[in-house]
């Protein structure tokens, strides 16, 4: 299997429509908000939302959004999606590794938290492979996970 070069890039008025077209498989839709909803949410949280498109070999392949509360030194993986066409190719793993490097360069503790909806097809097992552990806490019905960086 070919290894794609993965990068995180800003989203511009020229590229946002490509990012809006990215979709997870239908069975995964209940686990992640659409990119349109995520970008709208980011618009209303300009002080804390940090978001990027995931590219694989120069082609839009996913979306990531963090909630950065630098004043509290709290960092949260708010959204993460890889288009169904790019799943199973290592793109998600490499994209999250880039996110980890981003968070390590932020002030304070190098900890990233996220939540996931439990159930068949949940991203929980993927996050566990990436070093996240369940904390035992729940937030709005979702299971809280964290990863020390």
Task: Please outline what is shown here.
With 149 residues, the protein is of the alpha+beta class.
Count of distinct strands: 7
Strand order of the largest sheet: 1-2-3-4-5-7-6
Total discrete domains: 1
- The CATH architecture comes to 3-Layer(aba) Sandwich
Largest pleated sheet = 7 strands, mixed
How many helix segments?
4
Q: Can you tell me about this structure?
A:
This protein is α+β, with helices and mostly antiparallel strands and 149 residues long. It has a single domain, classed as 3-Layer(aba) Sandwich (Aminopeptidase), CATH 3.40.630. It has helices spanning 16-21, 35-43, 91-104, 124-129, and strands spanning 6-9, 49-56, 59-69, 74-82, 111-116, 133-139, 142-148. It has a 7-stranded mixed beta sheet with strand order 1-2-3-4-5-7-6, with helices on both faces. The longest helix is centred in the middle third of the chain and has 14 residues, at 91-104. The protein is globular and about 35 Å long. It starts with 5 loop residues before the first strand and ends with a strand.
List the helices and strands and how they pair.
Layout: E1 6-9, H1 16-21, H2 35-43, E2 49-56, E3 59-69, E4 74-82, H3 91-104, E5 111-116, H4 124-129, E6 133-139, E7 142-148
Parallel strand pairs: 4-5
Antiparallel strand pairs: 1-2, 2-3, 3-4, 5-7, 6-7
């Amino acid at each position: 299997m070919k290894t794609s070069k993965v990068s995180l890039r800003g989203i511009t008025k020229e590229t946002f429509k490509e990012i809006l077209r990215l979709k997870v498989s239908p069975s995964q839709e209940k686990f992640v908000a659409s990119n349109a909803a995520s970008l709208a949410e980011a618009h209303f949280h300009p002080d804390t939302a940090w978001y990027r498109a995931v590219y694989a070999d120069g082609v839009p392949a996913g979306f990531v959004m963090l909630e950065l509360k630098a004043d509290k030194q709290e960092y949260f993986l708010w959204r993460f999606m890889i288009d169904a066409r790019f799943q199973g190719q290592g793109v998600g793993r490499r994209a999250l590794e880039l996110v980890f490097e981003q968070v390590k360069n932020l002030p304070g503790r190098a900890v990233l938290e996220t939540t996931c909806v439990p159930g068949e097809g949940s991203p929980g097992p993927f996050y566990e492979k990436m070093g996240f552990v369940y904390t035992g806490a729940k937030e709005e019905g979702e299971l809280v996970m964290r990863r020390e960086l």
